[in-house]
Amino acid sequence: MADYNEGLEKFAELNVDAANDFKLLRPELFCRAFLNPAVKTDAITSNIAETFNGYIIQARTKHLLYMLEDIRAALMQRMVVKRQAMMKATSILCPRIQAKLEAEKAKAAECEVTPSFEILFNVNYNLDQLVVNLESRSCTCKKWDMLGIPCCHAVASIYFLGKEPELFVDKCYYRDTYLLVYAGSIPPIEGERHWPVASMPIDPPPIKIGPGRPRKNQIKDPYENPKKFGSLTEQGLK
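^ thats the sequence. predicted structure below, dont judge the formating
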């Protein structure tokens, strides 16, 4: 919240009207300062849904049965590939999570730790003083609470006790948990040539095709830069 309020003050210094309009957009619905820490993510976009949408974009143009078959085959293979890739990992954490933790370890060297109790610490970092609670796994910066990955302040406190930060990462990021998620499999099925013949017609209802070429790509903002994904142009903006 301190970062949010500080950023809002800087925003108001640039343009008061824009800052007031921003508040009317209900920032508690999309700003990280208001996210529920129980979710263990800091994502504020729908990128994960768009990624899967792009994953099946070719299958979506096909007939219903063939679309489902393409999706089934792609997911069947994906389950095996993901499981095999994770089985090669040697750490107790998933590789990407381990990389994020290593980045926090590097910043932890700049933290100054003052113990208050075996589980409570004051940490000074970049002229800021924060409180770390190892029992509740929380920090004033809320990064540990939100992600489940110890922040640099928590890592410094953990090192002060002579323990390993990997043991304080949320269980959802463990390699064993990942393998349990992908432990199942999608069974293979025979092709259409081997299907039993039905005695009753089971054709789908007729499809009414609208005029024009079917849309495949995402509908973009009118001012979005077509050459740079996710960036807006200044043309026509006030």
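Strands lie at 112-115, 120-125, 128-133, 138-139.
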